[in-house]
Amino acid sequence: MRFRHPDGSTVHLAYCTNVHPAETLDGVLAQLRDHCEPVRRRLGRDRLGIGLWLARDAAHALVTDPSALRGLRTELEHRGLEVVTLNGFPYEGFGAEEVKYRVYQPDWADPERLAHTTDLARVLAQLLPDDVTEGSISTLPLAWRTAYDQERATAAHTALTTLAERLDALHELTGRSLRIGLEPEPGCTVETTRDALAPLTAIGHDRIGICVDTCHLATSFEDPHTALDALAQALVPIVKSQLSAALHAEHPHLPEVRAALAAFDEPRFLHQTRTLTAAGLRGTDDLGEALAGDALPDASPWRAHFHVPLHAAPAAPLTSTLPVLRAALTRLVGGPHPLTHHLEVETYTWQALPPELRPRARAQLVDGIAAELTLARDLLTDLGLKELP
Question: Is 249 helix (H, G, I), strand (E, B) or coil?
């Protein structure tokens, strides 16, 4: 979906396909047929943006087989879909029964991460629509915080600098300008936007910036305006923003709130949980750990890294951080000029929701994704953007 900003530039809105597990190119093609095109039709649009997730094997197949890459582009056009952004965070196995800490491997100190992201960039340069010259790729924020020493930090810095040089060369070769955004996430070396300032300014290349995920922003209790102003002052480019909402518990000390939270403690993904105390931010790596005894202070609200559907906040006594998303979006695209032109709805946890909230059929999932995109569209038009055909 495309929108015209009052300044005349185009803002792209997509939804991320990591909600549809697929490790191979055949699986990706099936996604387009079974999910993406039906979402487009449900919205009644001739064109729909998707933030494509390509696992290692799928990306490698595309970059080593030009005919396969041409075939994917043809299939996208045939189904009324377009790609201006990729989700390069998960490397493989994102649809596994247990993902947890595995999603952070390989990290930016490992050569495999640079190789995979380079493949993604080469693929995206060929998938961009003919009238689009700028693409974006989100990636993990350097590494999970443990076992990340100075040696690995130096290796990650070198890898990202090498990537920037490769993106420069790709621009000269194809005319397509691609940028990479580190995506701050609780528990990682770069947990907050503030944590991103030092490594990104050290790299000092405008092709390496930040991806602002509004669920992660909220989970870490960052104020959107303060965070985005700091990025602007540091001249850190906002490559893209993922529109998502976290799980919020206002009174975590109450037994009924604990019981409601426990329904979201599931085995597939990590749900880092945070609370803001007078002494600063406190947290656990997972929701179950927070619920066990006194691992986390409960005198103040808790937020958990659980991407809840944008249009359907959990039932009381829980809610979502949709207000944080609204505030961030106002700052991102509500001003005289957009801070980013790439927006992506990223709710990948539909099948991890409590059983009674999960879609029971493909059509229900299509309805849910379409409802999320409709909410995002309405937020954008309320900010003065005009939806384009």
Answer: strand
**Of 203, 202, 200, 207, nearest to 231 (Cα)?**
200
Measuring CA to CA, how many Å separate 279 from each of 227, 297, 300, 306, 366? 20, 11, 12, 25, 44
First CA to last CA distance, the chain: 8
The CA distance from 349 to 286, in Å, is: 15
Provide CB contacts within 8 A for 62, sequence distance 6+: 25, 54, 68, 69, 72, 119, 123
Hey, is 144 helix, strand or coil?
strand
Determine if the pTM surpasses 0.90: yes
> Which tokens sit at 20?
């549809």
Per-residue tens of pLDDT for the chain, all 389 residues: 999 999 999 999 999 999 998 999 999 999 999 999 999 999 999 999 999 999 999 999 999 999 999 999 999 999 999 999 999 999 999 999 999 999 999 999 999 999 999 999 999 999 999 999 999 999 999 999 998 999 999 999 999 999 999 999 999 999 999 999 999 999 999 999 999 999 999 999 999 999 999 999 999 999 999 999 999 999 999 999 999 999 999 999 999 999 999 999 999 999 999 999 999 999 999 999 999 988 999 999 999 999 999 999 999 999 999 999 999 999 999 999 999 999 999 999 999 999 999 999 999 999 999 999 999 999 999 999 999 99
SS (H, E, C) 48-111: EEEEECCCHHHHHHHHHCHHHHHHHHHHHHHCCEEEEEEECCCCCCCCCCCCHHHHHCCCCCCH
Amino acid of residue 263: A
Separation of alpha carbons 116 and 60, rounded Å: 8
Omega cis (within 30) before 317: yes
Q: b/e map of 252-265 (b: 16 or more CB within 10 Å)?
A: beeeebbebbeebb
Coil, strand or helix at 188: strand
Cis before 38? omega within 30: no
